[in-house]
Amino acid sequence: MLTVSNLSKTIDGQAVLRGVDFKLEQGRVVGVVGRNGAGKTTLFKTMAGILIPDAGTVEYEGQSIHATPSKKLNIVFIPDSPEALFSYTAMESALFFSHIYPTFDKGFFSNTLHKLELPLDRKIRQFSKGMRMLFSTVLGLATKAPFVLLDEPTNGIDAIAKKQVMTLLMEAAEEGTTLVISSHLLNELERVADTILVMKAGGIETHDMDETANGAVRKFQVVFRDEAPASWLNSPSVRVLDKIGRVYTVLVDTKAPIGALEEMGKFDPLLMEHLPMKLEDLFVWKLGGSNYVG
């Protein structure tokens, strides 16, 4: 169990993390989403013990990783680019990591790089972006740390490399590794994640993927019989996703005190069809900009 409690971090006078709380059970795949600059990388670096929090704790099995440095070995952070290892070859990087992580699996590392046709004797700076991400993923998984934090692991790489990275990650998850993945590729996260952490204004909300599909916020396609009710469309319990002619695609908070769903029915629309919710819809609901203003 990895427990983050009341975690706060200020960088250059800006509060990046504000009292963040959540728990991660082993063997889960967790997606972390948020707008650019939301603090996802800062969160990962603090969780891995690279950054020291201003307040709060990160505990592995009840012990603080910052107060007990040996506990950091249970958490590995894989950045979006392995710049710190650019002057090393892949094999030299593995030897370096094996001195840090006692559980480092050299056989897994060498065999997997061989299968992926990645050279062990080439400097990392000579790798393409896709090769670097594959190398970083294999290096992190080879530590056999129970918690692996990945910052944008498939960003900017080709379709083949992306499939290879995701295959490696899903194989690790099947073996019980907890993966915490930040990504703007929401369709990708939706396919693999059990839980989603939504970052906004330095805080975090936790959403189970089943709750995303069957929660209070629902998605509808609606065609109004008369002129579209602007006041309803602009209400805080409604968000317009799309409008094509008279056809609106909207998100509605069905638990809102004002009864937005019931109110929609009172307009006697020509069409009111319930659509499946996607992770992208949750992202827009939680983090989207201004609503319909037409």
Summarize the structure.
It comes from Cohnella luojiensis. The chain has 294 residues and is an alpha/beta fold.
Report the structural category. Answer: alpha/beta
CATH hierarchy, class of the largest domain = Alpha Beta
Shape: elongated
Largest sheet: 6 strands, mixed
Strand line-up in the sheet with most strands: 6-7-8-3-9-10
Report the CATH topology name of the largest domain.
Rossmann fold
Cα radius of gyration in angstroms: 22 Å
CATH superfamily of the largest domain: P-loop containing nucleotide triphosphate hydrolases
Keywords: ATP-binding, Nucleotide-binding, Transport
GO molecular function, one term: ATP binding
InterPro entries: AAA+_ATPase, ABC_transporter-like_ATP-bd, ABC_Transporter_VariousFunc, P-loop_NTPase
Domain ABC transporter: 2-226
Q: Any overview of this molecule?
A:
With 294 residues, this protein is of the alpha/beta class. The protein has two domains: 2-211, P-loop containing nucleotide triphosphate hydrolases (Rossmann fold, 3-Layer(aba) Sandwich), CATH 3.40.50; 215-287, Malonyl-CoA ACP transacylase, ACP-binding (Alpha-Beta Plaits, 2-Layer Sandwich). The chain has helices at 40-47, 90-100, 106-115, 129-142, 159-174, 186-192, 209-214, 230-233, 260-266, 279-287; strands at residues 2-11, 14-24, 29-34, 55-60, 63-64, 75-78, 147-151, 178-182, 195-200, 203-208, 217-223, 238-244, 247-253, 271-275. The strands form three sheets. A six-stranded mixed β-sheet has the order 6-7-8-3-9-10, with helices on both faces. The N and C termini lie far apart (48 Å). This is ABC transporter ATP-binding protein. Residues 2-226 form the ABC transporter domain. Keywords: ATP-binding, Nucleotide-binding, Transport. It comes from Cohnella luojiensis. One of its GO terms (molecular function) is ATP binding.
